[in-house]
Amino acid sequence: MPQIKHVFFDLDHTLWDFEKNSALSFESIFTEHTVPFSVEEFLHNYIPINLKYWKRYRLNEITKEELRYQRLKEAFDSVQFKATDHLINTIAELYILRLSEQKHLFDGSLEILNYLKAKYHLHIITNGFEEVQYKKMYNSGISNYFLTTTTSEDVMLKKPHPKVFQHALQKAKATTQESIMIGDNLEADIFGALDVGMDAIYFGNDTTFKGKRVEQLLELKKYL
């Protein structure tokens, strides 16, 4: 793809292994607070609940504070644990702190970033909270790979809103024709990028998507 000069990545679930890092964060918190059930049992319910609330947050149906509280409240309710508001708020704050300290990346992340950095300008576009996204990148050792980072809080909007991508392109001094987006979320990352005229590569296993797709990050070498 000789016309491509700028490669934009999503962060969570694309480079940074959100589920693994999330599990480790909850494990340490539950141990400290003697929560009476396993992390595995909790996560079985929490993961789909979290995705549901993130979608509502993306659609501006709830605030950041409501997201942080309600996803935990519903997850605790689902395992019949009557958590007090104080405990939920304490865990919510600790979770954000611990999450940003985790370092696990998906297999092939550093190798593909080294490969791409030699050929392209690299950037991040993320819907994650600004105060933790930069810490995640720094603590996992990938900050220096990226020339720009655009968060939803920069624009006060969230992917797939076109203004998020337009702001990121402007910040990177890039055009749509010379840019490509890589992400795990078809709605937010892939269709959002395609709708503004950027090319896109889906990182995931939904075989109904007929565009460019990889299931391992090193497969990006097929396209870039």
Automatic annotation (TrEMBL):
Signal peptide: none annotated. GO terms for molecular function: 5'-nucleotidase activity. It comes from the Bacteria. InterPro entries: HAD-like_sf, HAD-SF_hydro_IA, HAD-SF_hydro_IA_YjjG/PynA, HAD_sf, PGP-like_dom2, Pyrimidine_5'-ntase_YjjG. It holds the Pfam family Hydrolase. NCBIfam families: HAD-SF-IA-v1, YjjG_YfnB. This is Noncanonical pyrimidine nucleotidase, YjjG family protein. It comes from Psychroflexus salis.
